[in-house]
Every structure is written in structure tokens, then in C-alpha cells.
TrEMBL record:
Family that this chain belongs to: Belongs to the ENTR1 family.
Coiled coil spans: 12-99
UniProt KW Coiled coil keyword: yes
GO CC annotation terms, alphabetical: centrosome; ciliary basal body; early endosome; midbody; recycling endosome
Sorted UniProt keywords: Coiled coil
Gene Ontology biological-process entries: positive regulation of cilium assembly; positive regulation of protein localization to cilium; regulation of cytokinesis
Protein name, as recorded: Endosome-associated-trafficking regulator 1
InterPro entries: ENTR1
Amino acid sequence: LREENASLRSKINKLQVLSEMQADKMRKLERKLEENKIKEEKEAQDLEAMVQHVEQNLQLMTKRAVKAENSATKLKQENALLQAQLKNYKTENEALRSGHSASLAIMKQNADIALQNLLTVITSSQSSIKQLVSGAESLQLVADLLKSIDKISEIPDDGH
């Protein structure tokens, strides 16, 4: 009985040591799990902040693109008006050349002014069109970024 008792005590001691080792291992795993949860929460917050920032930039770029589009439309209308004026001035200039040489200088001056206005409008419209194209390129970049964010969010969870 004593030998059996000693043997059982030895087994109990071994089991207690094994139990303590497993408890330590479990505590370490629990700490690691908690650290991973905190890390994942921070990454999720960072990702959410980045998405919000991208959305704000997208809204701002959309506003800029609409403004540039409106400006381009207005400049095109001005351009058409000035071209019509230029055509009228040229017609009037031709009429004056045919008989009224005294007012020819005035007509030439009017045509030059119209031409200068036309060139100014063309230059302004080209700038607005360039801004519109730049805004569209920026919007495409943001769209590509959002697509890549979607791809990141679709990555399967590996058991964490």
C-alpha cells in the first residue's frame, strides 16, 4: 500500500506539474489572443479612417470636376458667341471693304478686339478642360484605390 501510495503521489505530482505547465501555456495564449484582438481593432480603425479620408477626397474631387465641367460649358458658350461675333465682324468688314474705306479702320479694330476676345476665351477654355481631365484622372485613381480596399477587405480570415 505504501508503495502504491508513493507511486500515486508521484503521479499526482507529475500531473500537477503538467497541469501548471498547461495553465502557464494557456495564460500565455490568452495574452497573445488579447494582444492580437487589440492589434486587429487598431488596424480596423486605421482602415476605417483611411476609407473616410478617401471618401472625403472623392467628394471634393467630384465637386471640383462638376465645377470644371460647368466652367468648360460656360466657356464653350462664350466661345460660340465670340465666334458668331467674329463672323459678323468679318461680314461687316467685307461689306465695308467693298465701298466704305473710311470706316475700314474701325471695322478692322473691332475684328481685332473680337479676335483677342476669342483667343482669350479659347485659352481659358483649354485650361478648364485640362482641369476637368486632371479631375477625371484623380477620380479614376480614387476609384482604383477603393477597389484595392475592397480586395483587402475580402481576404479570408485565417483563424484569428
